[in-house]
Design a protein that fits this description.
single chain; 28% helix; alpha+beta; 37% strand; five-stranded mixed sheet
Length: 259
């Protein structure tokens, strides 16, 4: 385990799961802590204030880190949380670290957990192993092109250039497996006079067969912050997870904003 991954896991598991907030802040954060999580103020004090109340409200906490990838100074975690034994959440968390591998910035989206797709997958099951490290930059470029051509450019007829026609496993709760599942989603929105339009990609990181993008998306008229997690094989996307949260107003954000 690298030091920066240890910092991200430590802040999450020691600080939030185990409730040792000050110890985690002292050990795993840097000189600044810029926050993009909705409702949590900037700085270590903002983290401490929010999570002290969170711990009081949720004395029973189960947290599992399902996926972790690293790229340069960045660490991404895909996490499940169960609070009070029944309330379930899925979070996508991106951390930036300083020269000492301590956390200095954090972005996230949080969605309701415990859902399944039309094809029977959960929001977090599927492959977790990081492989193909030699293809990291190639895979990042492929995902960047897919987003630019299909999701931003609207050229849905070219999706087969980027997504496997033989095996495309979808973990987004409302979307079935295969290219057909994606086209059905966009066709359904179009029939309602709505669309799924990707704007700016704020962060794109990758490690081997996994690539993660944090994007600003117009989802049927609502501004959303969306984490897309892609797994690739031989240059094609074969698996996808996502986590989308509305972009808050400045007052709701209570910090530097969602991006």
């Amino acid at each position: 385990m690298t030091a920066k991954l240890d910092s991200a896991l430590g802040l999450y598991l020691e600080g939030i799961r185990d409730g040792r907030i000050q110890r985690a802040l002292d050990r795993y954060t840097g000189d600044r802590y810029t926050q993009h999580s909705t409702g949590v103020a900037d700085g270590k004090e903002g983290f401490r204030t929010f999570f002290e109340s969170f711990l009081d409200r949720n004395p029973q906490r189960e947290i599992e880190v399902v996926r972790a990838i690293e790229d340069g100074s960045y660490v991404f975690l895909h996490v499940t949380q169960t609070l009070g034994g029944s309330t379930r959440w899925v979070t996508a968390d991106l951390f930036d670290t300083d020269e000492n591998d301590r956390i200095v910035e954090h972005w996230d989206t949080i969605v309701t957990g415990g859902l399944t797709t039309p094809s029977g997958h959960t929001q977090t099951d599927g492959e977790t192993r990081v492989t193909d490290l030699g293809r990291t930059e190639e895979n990042k470029s492929r995902v960047a092109e897919f987003i630019a051509v299909v999701l931003q450019g609207g050229e849905t007829g070219r999706i087969g250039e980027f997504v496997s026609a033989d095996s495309y496993v979808q973990h987004s709760p409302d979307v079935a497996d295969g290219i057909e599942g994606f086209t059905a989603l966009t066709a359904g929105l179009a029939a309602e006079g709505k669309s799924l339009t990707y704007g700016k990609v704020h962060r794109l990181i990758g490690q081997g067969n996994f690539v993660v993008a944090l994007s600003e998306v117009d989802w049927a008229g609502t501004a959303m912050a969306v984490f897309d997690i892609f797994r690739l094989e031989n240059g094609l996307i074969v698996e996808h997870w996502d986590s989308a949260e509305p972009v808050p107003t400045a007052a709701e954000a209570n910090n530097s904003g969602k991006f």
